[in-house]
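not sure who needs this but someone in the group chat was asking about tRNA (guanine-N(1)-)-methyltransferase from Geomesophilobacter sediminis so here u go. i didnt clean anything up, its just raw.
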Amino acid sequence: MKFDILTLFPAMFEGPLTESIIKRAIEAGTIEIGLHNIRDWALDKHATADDAPYGGGAGMVMKVEPLAAAIEAVKEKRPASRVIMTTPCGRPFNHQVARELSTEEGLIIVCGRYEGVDERVRTLFVDDEISLGDFVLTGGELAAMVIVDAVSRLVPGVLGHNDSALYDSFADGLLEYPQYTRPPEFRGLKVPDVLLSGNHAEIAKWRRKESILRTMASRPELLDRIELSKADKKLIGEAGK
């Protein structure tokens, strides 16, 4: 999987992309990440990448020429890559979108800044627009980091255990069940007996029930998007007794 990130601030990515799982995936060659400074394609000696908006108003707008040149240069090397722009106008990012993007050969992520990006960039080059949610960030760099991290986890070979991503929260539409590790008791709180039983069928049943109950308590709207089986409903009934 190849990620190409177009940004005015490439140094922002040094920490997130040089640690932990992402770092190991890069070293193993499972994913590849290219950082591209949009100013490298600016047309003047001052490397200007923004200008005042036509029609007036506060702030600045990212210029079309440097972005167009940057996208075309990267696209020439990665013709199959999907061009994504981070913007509040985009579709909400979630696990299903991450899963969809993980099937692409590559992603070119354009990080928006200032008051926005010249509309002609969106019209001419952008295949998809992504938003992290109904809030405003200083720029699209943080959103790009989140997209890279979430998508990378779903690329085969990135996680240490092939099944790890299958049991993450939202993977099956539910929040993840509670997790425990040693010690078996801490300040009077004990690990549930079933997890110490060695009975894998009962453990799976307990985890499914806890996922459903946690979702009901914290994010009940998620249950409207999935169809609970008879066995799931039975588990809920047993929990209510």
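also The chain has two domains: 2-152, 169-239. if thats useful
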